[in-house]
Amino acid sequence: MKNLKITSILLTALLCITACAEKPTGETPGHDEPVMDTVPEPDIIISVLAADSLYRNYGSDRASFLEEAINEQNPDVEDGYNPTRFVTVEFDVLSDYLKFVSQQSAKAGIKPKGIRFYLGQIGSESETEGIDPGPETIFFNPTAAFPGITGDISYALQIDPAGNYRAVTVGSIIDAASKTQQSQKGANLLLQGGIQSLAGDRVGFPPPPHPGDENDYH
Questions:
Q1: Tens-place pLDDT, residues 143-160
Q2: Which residues contact 24 (CB under 8 A, 6 or more apart)?
Q3: Total-model pTM
Q4: Which among 214, 216, 217 has a CA at the least distance from the CA of 65?
Q5: Is the confidence at residue 22, as pLDDT, over 50?
Q6: Cβ neighbours of 90 (radius 10 Å)
Q7: What angle do CA 178, 181, 185 make, to 5 degrees?
Q8: Domain extent listing, the chain
Q9: Beta strands in 99-164 (DSSP E)
Q10: 162 vs 69, 102, 165, 184, 209, CA distance in Å?
């Protein structure tokens, strides 16, 4: 009888251990997806109405001025000019971009401190397929602190012939490229390896604004 009780206790303990081992760590019973850590609301979050106010201010004080001025300068352009009101980056694409920036920056021993968004315009030399020259756009680049430079600045990565990574300012690359074009004597060691750009683009352009509804933030 005593052996039977011991056996029952051992079987019960074994079943408990098996049940615990089969339960995936970080998952809630009855759910297939792991429990995500709670993220507090960031300080940069603004209300929907505050965002709508920003959008309408731009539409009335900036976009309308651009539309009128450019249409006056180009009266023969078919369908006229519609200023860009927004661009879209797919969530997963932006997430992968941020992961790639972190991954490549770590190879150079630098940690990005911010993402800087630049305003730009599609030119005739654009590599963006399917988009005619002219529309305004945005592109973005990570920033970090560099010795001797006040404030954070956009950077790229230099890869030397040995495969070592080093963070360099975007300005230094542009200056080196300019000197190389002007004179072969101006060739810079910066350009002798490879340059990994961290600038991002490929945003989605919206259709022209709805007639009579230029300020629709949605």
A1: 999 999 999 999 999 998
A2: 34
A3: 0.71
A4: 214
A5: no
A6: 12
A7: 100
A8: 47-83, 86-196
A9: 114-121, 136-144, 153-159
A10: 52, 21, 9, 23, 51
pLDDT class of 18 with cuts at 50, 70, 90: very low
- Residue 67 CA to residue 135 CA, distance in Å, equals 11
**Contact between residue 194 and residue 172 where contact means Cβ atoms under 8 Å apart:** no
Q: What is the spatial distance between Cα 82 and Cα 97, in angstroms, rounded to a whole number?
A: 29
| Residue % of the chain over a pLDDT of 70 | 67
d(CA 52, CA 215): 8
Question: How many Å apart are CA 181 and CA 184, to the nearest integer?
Answer: 7
- 81 band by pLDDT with thresholds 50, 70 and 90: confident
- Examine the pLDDT at 20 and tell me if it is beyond 70: no
Q: Average model confidence (pLDDT) for the chain? A: 77
DSSP line for 22-44: HSPTTB-TT-SSBPPPP-PPPTT
In the chain, the largest separation of any two C-alpha atoms, in whole Å, equals 103
